[in-house]
Amino acid sequence: MKNNKAGLIGSKKPPKTEMKEWMFQEQVKMLYQNQTQSWVISILASGIIAYLSFESDDALIGALWWVVFIAITLGRTWNTRQFCDVLAKGESIDFKHWFSRFFALTLLAGAGWGVGGFVVGSSLDHLSQVYIFIVLIGVGAAAIPVLGVMQSVMLSFQAVSTIPYIVYISIQSDERGGMLLFMFALYMVAVISSIRRMNKNFGECMALQFEKTQMVDALSESNQKLQYTNEKLETLSLEDALTELHNRRYFEMQLEVEWKREAREQKILTLMVIDIDFFKLYNDTYGHAEGDVCLKNVAQALRSCIHRPSDIIARIGGEEFVVMLPGIDENGASVLAKQMQDQLELTALTHASSPLGENLTVSIGIASVVPGNNATALGLFKAADKALYKAKANGRNQFIIGEMELT
């Protein structure tokens, strides 16, 4: 059995203390759930004993006992409802507290049965006392499936509900008393055997259920980790690792989406292609490690000028960046280009080998179009890229607005 269980969850087994706590909680739940309908049987069975008292001179005492027993039974039912309500609400539950309440009320009910036997049976003839004996035995047997999930509860109930009265009736029966005690002893052996077998089977089933729960939780956790990893990989596949801007793949995906949206809404779409001036000289002067630091600083400066969620900035290769501006025309893009150049001037990234001065600069090409049948997204990008090369040819450190060639 142990090897089979180990095979279900691999080499790692759940801690015994954790399993015991979980099993205890499940047992408490089952005790309360089994208790839900037992109050009807309790009241009917106790009514039989109360009915026997009506044939004696102590009918009033029997009736009073029945009223008290009904009150105890309804109290147990109320306690069960309380627990079920707390359980249904998903609130935090102190299972030890609720078990103590259940155990105390069960002992009280068992004592009620035992007291009823003495109160009613003491004034009846021998045959009626045997009837009460049979009722108490039947109550004990009926309690096995209700209380048997926890051996201590079941045996405690039997001890207070039946044993005192059975001993009493056996003493009163003289020569037949020994036979009654023997029958009751056989009954108790059968009860204990049934309870132990039930608890053993229950324990094995609960252990398997616990391990199954552990497996489900572990699988759920693994799925969450896998989902997180996939999301992370997806993010990394769309992000430039060096500058933490979007990469070319993400830009191309978003360009396609925005192109369709602007075409549908007939709104203008603008692209800005940005290139760091004389970046090869920068690498030759400071080395590639410093060149990477420079790219990060430039990316941060450019990104600080982007404020709308719909605007996208991406690094599309080497020292080249692109900005997509939905709904912004050439004039708006020109204002943004000037802001970017001013921001780089404030950042003051030293470029001692640049022919343009001691600080690093950028050149920018801009192109705009309202997407339609005579324009393409690739054509828009080429127009911005062509404007960039014109800006570089004209001396760099400037931005130029290109003309979109319609097909």
Topology, please?
Elements (H helix, E strand, L loop, with lengths): L1 H8 L6 H20 L2 H16 L5 H31 L5 H27 L4 H22 L3 H11 L1 H10 L4 H61 L10 H18 L3 E8 L2 H8 L1 H16 L8 E6 L2 E7 L3 H18 L14 E8 L7 H17 L5 E3 L6
Parallel strand pairs: 4-5
Antiparallel strand pairs: 1-3, 1-4, 2-3
**Range of helix content:** 55-70%
Number of strands: 5
Would you tell me the structural class of the helices and strands?
Answer: alpha+beta
The strand order across the widest sheet is 2-3-1-4-5
Report the total helices. Answer: 14
The low-confidence runs, each spanning 5 or more residues with pLDDT under 50, are 1-14
Q: Hey, roughly how much beta strand do the residues contain?
A: 5-15%
Shape: rod-shaped
Integer tally of domains: 2
Following the backbone from N to C, one meets helices and strands in this order, namely HHHHHHHHHHEHHEEHEHE
Description:
This protein has 2 domains: 2-220, no CATH class; 248-401, Reverse transcriptase/Diguanylate cyclase domain (Alpha-Beta Plaits, 2-Layer Sandwich), CATH 3.30.70. 70% of the residues lie in helices and 8% in strands. The protein is built from 14 helices and 5 strands. The protein has helices at residues 2-9, 16-35, 38-53, 59-89, 95-121, 126-147, 151-161, 163-172, 177-237, 248-265, 279-286, 288-303, 330-347, 377-393; strands spanning 269-276, 312-317, 320-326, 362-369, 399-401. Strands 2-3-1-4-5 form a 5-stranded mixed sheet, sandwiched between helices. Strand 2 (312-317) and strand 3 (320-326) form a beta hairpin. The chain is rod-shaped, with a radius of gyration of 43 Å.
